[in-house]
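LAB NOTEBOOK - FOLDING QUEUE
OPERATOR: T.R.
BATCH SIZE: 2
PURPOSE: Compare the predicted structure-token outputs for two unrelated chains run back to back under identical settings.
PRIORITY: normal
REVIEWER: second-year student, initials M.K.

ITEM 1
FIELD SEQUENCE / FIELD STRUCTURE:
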Amino acid sequence: MINESVDKSKRQFLTTALTVVGAVGTGYLAVPFLSQMQPSVKAMAAGAPVEVDISKIEVGQLIRVAWRGKPVWVLQRSPEILATLTTLDGQLSDPQSNESSQPESSKNSARSMKPEIFVAVGLCTHLGCSPTFRPEVAPHDLGADWKGGFFCPCHGSWFDLAGRVYKGVPAPTNLEVPPYRYITDTQIIIGEEEKAA
């Protein structure tokens, strides 16, 4: 009788020990396979939000940053530029940005959260070329109607300094405004929207 009770307790101990060792071994085998399914650090960084310091941008200056593999422009606009925007509505295809992609906080005539700072993805909505920044007024190659803006050299699309597309050009919609938010008055994060109150 004593031998039978000893054998049962040994058997119970061995069964429990083997179960624990098997579970730990399965975990060690599963970790590499599960971690392989996660996006790489490079892939996560490509889609990660980008912080931009706007404190040193001068009036009329455009800076470029990369977000999700795309160029994003940040432009400091002057009061004169903002005044010009309202005079162009009749020449624009979508002056109120009803057909365009932008966060709700940027759906206005300036297409921005704060009128003086404009943020846009720097890719033409026609075939994805990168327009050139042409802030000068009435240059000889663009004509007297040009009030400053973005010109796409690939197929000739025009955008004003709020990224709104002119009528009669190949680009179908205004430049995309990415999601962004202000951390402080001089710092923005591109890739995150303002949280709803």
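ITEM 2
FIELD SEQUENCE / FIELD STRUCTURE:
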Amino acid sequence: MRLILMRHGETIWNAEQRLQGHENAPLSARGIEQARSFRRVAQDLAPSRVVSSDLGRCRETVGLIGYADAPSDPRLRELRMGVWSGRRKPDLIAEYADKYWAWRAGSYQPEGGESWLEFQGRVVDGLRDWLRRGDGDLLAVVHSGVIRAALSAFLGLPQDRMVPVTPGTATLLNFENAASDKVRLEGYNIGLFAPQTADAVSD
């Protein structure tokens, strides 16, 4: 059983390196192109089931890849970023470098934000629930942070050691079965666009 985690297409805020969290911005022209291009990848992967985060950028993406009727799940939302929502990554690093990197490592949460453990817990609960609901491969259209949380939980990878996935690409995890702890990484940053550098990608 595969879990295919697709990151939504680039948004206007992604292009501006702004943190989005539970806030939302529409897909940029590049993000629309990324999503439309991924439609071919999705057809080749042929998932049995599709679900998405309920935030607008994921709903826009899931429609563009051909699954507009897919259900939404708020458990698959991005990390809530509190007072940092809408702030630019370079500005946060300039003002709060230590706090920013501690946040990336999961050991700090800005005011009104969600802790890494809370976030990871709800993401894993949501993904495990959807994996148990049926047979065959599951495609989940989600966020960069959700993918890091899944890789950290299922593979034990430290989240601060992962480069954020490029918008419009997929990460593939192979599960022995829906309840299994035996999980293997099949692919990362899979898509029709070259992966972006870490500096160019924001959550």
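REVIEWER COMMENT (ITEM 2): The two ends are 27 Å apart (CA to CA).
FOLLOW-UP: none requested
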